[in-house]
Design goal:
By secondary structure, the chain is of the alpha+beta class. Helices cover 26% and strands 34% of the residues. It contains eleven helices and 39 strands. Strand 34 and strand 35 form a beta hairpin. Helix 9 runs antiparallel to helix 10. The longest helix is centred in the C-terminal third of the chain and has 35 residues. The radius of gyration is 35 Å and the shape is globular.
Amino acid sequence: MKVVYIILILISMSCSFISAIVISPNFGDASTNISDTHIEVIPSDSLVLQVSTSVSKLCRYSKTPWAPFHDMTNFEDNFEIIHKKPLTELTDGIHRYFVRCTEWSPDEVLPLTDIAELEIVFRINAPIAADIIIEDAAQDIMGNDVLKAGKYKVSLITTKRPSATPSLSYSYDGISYKPIIIDSSGDSSGNFWKGYLVIPKSAGEKIGTFKFEATALEGGGGTKIRSGSIFSIDTTAPTSISNVEAIGEYKRIRLEWFSPEDDIKSINIYRSITPGVSRADLYKTIDADNQYYSDNDVSKLKTYYYRISPVDEASNVADLSPEVSAMTRRDNNTVATGLSSELVSLVDAMLTELKLLDDDINNAQSILDDKSDSEKELLRTLGISGSISSSLSELNALEREITNYKLQNLNSDVLNSRLSSSRIKLNIIKKKVPSQILTIDSSRKEIKITDDDLRTALIEYSTELTPSQIDKSIKQSFKMMEENNLEIVSEITVFETVYLDGSKSSKTIIKHFINSVLERGSDKYLLLKLPSAISSDYIKIKNLDYTEEKYGLFSFGTDVKVITYILDDKTDVQVLNQIILSPVKISQDSNMLTGYFLSEIPNSGSLGMTLLVLMVCSLVIYLTVMKKKQQQYSIASFLQKARKVKGLQSKGSHDEANSLYNSLQLDYASLTEDEKSKVFNKISHLHKK
C-alpha cells in the first residue's frame, strides 16, 4: 500500500475559518496503525478535519476505534486526494477521531478490517462565548426580537466564568457601539449578568447588533455571541384607522373598518356605555386578519360607543379611531326607513355612483392582471396593487355607510351633509384607482465602477479621509471586487399612472442587483451616491437596513443582494447615469485626524527606505538644509493654530473651536512625516467638543 499522509487542519471559526493548526503523522503501510499521541489544544469550538492522501481514496472517520468501515462517516469529498469535514459545536475536553482510507469501493468484497487506522486526539478549549436574552421583547413571525420604545432587561449568559465583568455594547450601524452597564448581583454561578437597554421613541426603524468581549477565568479572551446577537427596533406607531362603522343588528352590534397598513398584528377594540371612549376602555384584542367584529355581549335598547386601534409586530399602538356608536335592533325584522321617498332616491343615486366606481376598480385590477410577472412585482413595489385592493375595501365600507342612511330618521339637511361627506370620501378613492398604467421606459445595464466613482464616493462618505487613505481604500476596494467577481446590474423602469379623477403621476423604480457574495464587515460598505439633480426628499428606499450618511449619500451592508428605491417622478436618463453605487473597503492601516484627534503615529520607515536614504544621502541633506526654515515656519504656524483651538475650547467657544479644528485636520494631513513627528505629542490631546 502506498504511503498515506494524514493531515489534520483545525481552523478556528467565527463567521468563517480564519486560522489553521496542522498535524501531519505518517500513516505508513497497510499493516501499520498510527496513534497520534500528541494532544493539540484547539482554541475554538469549531474546526475542519482535513485528510490528504497521495492518491485518490475513499476516507471515512468514526468516534470509536475499529468500527466496521460501512458504519463509518464519509468525508465531504469521496475518492479525492483532499478530504474535508467541518466539525462544529464541539464541547471542551479531549476528542478522539479514527480515520481509515481505501482505494477500493466499500461494496467490493474486501478484508476492510485490515485497513490501517489513524487515531487523532485533540483537546478543545473554546474561547469564552455568550448568549443574550432580551426580556419582554415582542417577536416577529420569524421569532426574532422586535423592540418598541422603552426599557428592556438584557441578560448575558457566558459559557465560562469570566475573570472580570464582561463588556457588552450595542450598535445600530455595526460601527459605533454604545456600552451597556451589566452586573452579576444575585447570581452565584459567576456566568450570569444583567443590564438594561433603553430604546428612545425617536429611534424609528433600525436593526441593532450586540458586541461582547470577555476573558475566561483560566485565561483566553472571546467575543462570540452564540444567540441573540441581532435585534430589530420599531418605535413608529402604525397609521390610525379613520374608516370605522358601528351597525346595530338583532342581539349584536357589528363593527366594520378598513386598515390602511398590512404589517398589523392585532386590533384593539375599546368600548364604553358612555361617550368619550379612551384607552382605559380596552375591551377586546382580535387578530388583524379580521376587518370586522361582532359584539354579542350587548343589552337591548342600550347604546354602545366604540373606538379601535391597530397594533404592529413591535406592539406599537396607533392613535384611536373616531368614536362610533350603535344600538341593537328590537327584533330580526328589517327596520322601516324614516326617509321620505325623495330622500331615499338621493341615497340610491349615490349608491349607483358607487356601483360605477366598483366597476372601474375591477377594471383596474384587470389592467394589473394583464401585466407581466416582472411588471406586477414592480407595481407591488410602487404600492399600486395594494392601492387597488384597499380602494375596494374602502368602497365597500362606504357603500355600507350610505346604505345605513336609509335606516336612520334623517331630515334633508342632515342627509345632504352626510352625502357630501361621503362624496369627499368617494373622490379620495378615485384619486387612488388607476385607469391606465403605462410603462414608458425600461432599461437594464451593468454598472462599471471606475476609479473616479470610488474616489467621489469615499470623499462624500468622510471628509476625514486623507488622500493617502483614499488611495489605499480604492486599491483595497478594487481588490475586494476582483476577488469576489463583483457584478452590479441596474434595472430602471418608469411607470406613468392615470387615475380616475384625471390626475397623473410618474414613478421611477431603480433596482440594483449585486450578483456576488460579499461578506459583511465593519470596514466594508455599499455606497449609493445620488447626483445633486435627484433630491433625497423625493426618494423612497425599500430596503429596511440602510443608513443615510448625508444628503444624497446612503450606505448599505455589503451582504445586501438587491437595493430598491423609488423616485417620485420621471427622471432624465443622463441624470440616472450619474448614480454611483460602489462597494468600498475603508483602509484601516493608514491613519487620519479623527474626532478624537490623532491616531496617525508617524512611520519610522522600512529597510528599503533606509537603503534609499543612504543612496541619496547628499540630496536629502541638501533639501533638509534648504527647507529647514520653511519647515520651522510650518510647524510654528501649525502649533499656534492648535493652541488657539485649545484656547477657544477653554472659553466655551466650541463652534469656532471645532471649525478651526477641522482646518487643523487638513493642515496635519499635508505635513511631512518628519513634521508630524515633531508636533504629534504636543497636539495628541486635542479632540472635538
